[in-house]
Amino acid sequence: xxxxxxxxxxxxxxxxxxxxxxxxxxxxxxxxxxxxxxxxxxxxxxxxxxxxxxxxxxxxxxxxxxxxxxxxxxxxxxxxxxxxxxxxxxxxxxxxxxxxxxxxxxxxxxxxxxxxxxxxxxxxxxxxxxxxxxxxxxxxxxxxxxxxxxxxxxxxxxxxxxxxxxxxxxxxxxxxxxxx
Length: 180
Prior knowledge:
Layout: H1 3-15, E1 24-28, E2 41-44, H2 46-53, E3 59-61, H3 64-97, E4 99-104, E5 111-116, H4 118-126, E6 137-138, E7 143-145, E8 147-156, E9 159-169
Parallel strand pairs: 4-9
Antiparallel strand pairs: 1-2, 1-3, 5-7, 6-8, 8-9
Family: Belongs to the bacterial ribosomal protein bL9 family.
Function: Binds to the 23S rRNA.
Protein name: Large ribosomal subunit protein bL9
């Protein structure tokens, strides 16, 4: 590659504001778990900024103009965040009142032939008009026995809910049973 081509390729990186640790300074447009909240000034590695945060619209380049705008609207952002947290807390309270039942094939000792995981829990919640993503269901491992489980549901970085999940044996039909 010629020097001119190299300079053009690297000029994109030079325009991004550098942080004190050599990373890129960005202003978060949305909350990003394990990084920061909306309006925070963060410093990240160039690859994370260019390949994830900027293309996904989660952050913008931290220009002086953007910083002034965030300072100007910081109180409004705080109010919006408080409303979101209240909404998530209300959803957590509703989930705590819920109890879902999932049928599964099991042997006489109550051990499941398969297991119940986040997919089955999410599908069961859809039947009661609650829509969650599978990664919001936090299990220590798949449910492999019949019984009542309290499952954690991650709604927000600051809000977690509990959901009661009953795993019950599948009701066998009378036809096809040996000796019936």
